[in-house]
Design a protein that fits this description.
The protein is mainly α. The chain is built from 14 helices and 8 strands. Bound molecules: S-adenosylmethionine.
Length: about 375
């Protein structure tokens, strides 16, 4: 964990473990109110399939498409293609396309040059889109780990060519797989079917069969994924236990991906202009807004895995807020201090609307599997 913090050069933060709440993030320096604490880059992310129709974003950095400036015309045309030739993913630049291909997409692509069985991958995606698109995120985690493992293995054996691969043992392969898995292990929690909240329309006496149905759904999805990308050397990743934990990690981590539409800012800006500049600006931009249609201000919505943010615990009187500033136009998580924070203090965020009454807060937090005992709850509990 500390390695990840070092890699991200977050010298101002530290991770600690407590019996009561597990991992937590603590301040190594003082933060002023409004100061940036952390920009956490997502490891894997996916836009909700229903949101894809209304909001075109880069599949790697999640910047809104027409907001990205390409350097020249050729780049603009080239940038939008996936390296494998599928039409599912779109990119704002060649750099994003190549980086996504190398880190995740090459195994999940349904194009001609994909590294998986196209028909099997299509079956997996169809099932995920028809049931729960969290499976696509889980597939991305598995693909990320396999590709990283292969890269580590290649690097390792390039380094000891003369050994004629004698160094390749089950043990060395396993330790490379563990190394590839390390960033994901940060968010590992409970199995999906154990931690998913019971929906309101399910009678508590049917809880057992509900959880069984969820497990069966995960099993079906995993079989379809195995048909598409199974790798014998990474067989551990394809166990139902690991798959259930990966999905559970998204269920329990408060990791929404939101990238606002820049058009919203335009309206705020225009509203604040004095007359007659306001009317003039509206006249000049009306044709552009008409061309964009009614859904111009829909933001990108999805789910992402942010390794460090996933270690931040909840408080109804939080010390920090996940809050995008004007300049934060991509899918990174931005954490800002919402009051002064002293050295050694825990950085907490609120997973819910902390202004709700006590009972409602506790009910919503039950979905995350815990009863909140923060200072505000202790004060307000009946
Ligand atoms: C996003 S994770 C936070 C990191 C977590 N402590 C860990 O070890 O990975 C959310 C989980 O942390 C625990 N948690 C977070 N805030 C808590 C709190 N105020 N009280 C008790 N448990 C909490 C719950 O188990 C919750 O499902």
């Amino acid at each position: 964990m500390m390695e990840l913090i070092r890699l991200k050069e977050c010298h101002s933060l530290t991770l600690k473990y407590s019996e009561e709440v597990g991992k937590g993030v603590y301040a190594n320096k003082e933060f002023k109110e409004g100061e940036l604490i952390l920009k956490d880059e997502m490891l894997v992310a996916a836009q909700h399939s229903s949101n894809k129709v209304d909001c075109l974003v880069c599949s790697k950095c999640f910047k809104l498409y027409w907001f990205c400036r390409a350097t020249d015309w050729e780049e603009t045309i080239f940038a939008k293609l996936c390296c494998g030739g599928c039409e599912e993913e779109h990119y704002c630049s060649k750099l994003c396309a190549e980086s996504d291909w190398e880190s995740v997409h090459s195994l999940l692509c349904t194009g001609q040059s994909s590294g998986s069985s196209q028909a099997a991958m299509l079956r997996f995606l169809e099932h995920a889109n028809g049931t729960n698109d969290i499976f696509i995120l889980a597939a991305k985690v598995i693909s990320f780990t396999i590709l990283k493992y292969r890269k580590l293995k290649q690097l390792h054996f390039e380094g000891c060519k003369l050994l004629d691969r004698l160094g390749e043992t089950d043990e060395s392969r396993f330790s490379m797989l563990l190394e590839a898995w390390k960033p994901i292990s940060m968010g590992f929690k409970k199995r999906w079917w154990d931690c998913i909240a019971l929906p309101d329309d399910v009678d508590p006496c049917n809880e057992g069969s509900f959880r069984m149905q969820i497990k069966d759904l995960a099993f079906t999805s995993l079989q379809l994924l195995k048909d598409a990308i199974f790798d014998n050397e990474c067989a551990y990743l394809f166990s139902l236990e690991v798959y259930g934990h990966i999905i559970g990690m998204f269920e329990l981590n408060n990791l929404d991906l939101v990238v606002a539409s820049p058009v919203e800012d335009y309206f705020i800006y225009i509203d604040e202009l004095p007359s007659p500049e306001k009317e003039e600006a509206e006249r000049l931009t009306r044709s552009f807004l008409d061309a964009l249609g009614d859904e111009y201000s829909i933001c990108c919505q999805g789910t992402a895995f942010f390794p460090l943010q996933s270690c931040m615990n909840h408080s109804c009187a939080p010390s920090a807020k996940a809050f995008k500033r004007d300049e934060d136009r991509d899918g990174q998580a931005v954490i800002i201090a919402c009051r002064p924070i002293s050295v050694g203090e825990e950085i907490t965020i609120s997973y819910i609307d902390e202004d709700l009454p006590y009972e409602e807060r506790q009910a919503q937090l039950a979905d995350y599997g815990f009863k909140c005992r923060c200072s505000k709850c202790l004060e307000e509990q009946p």
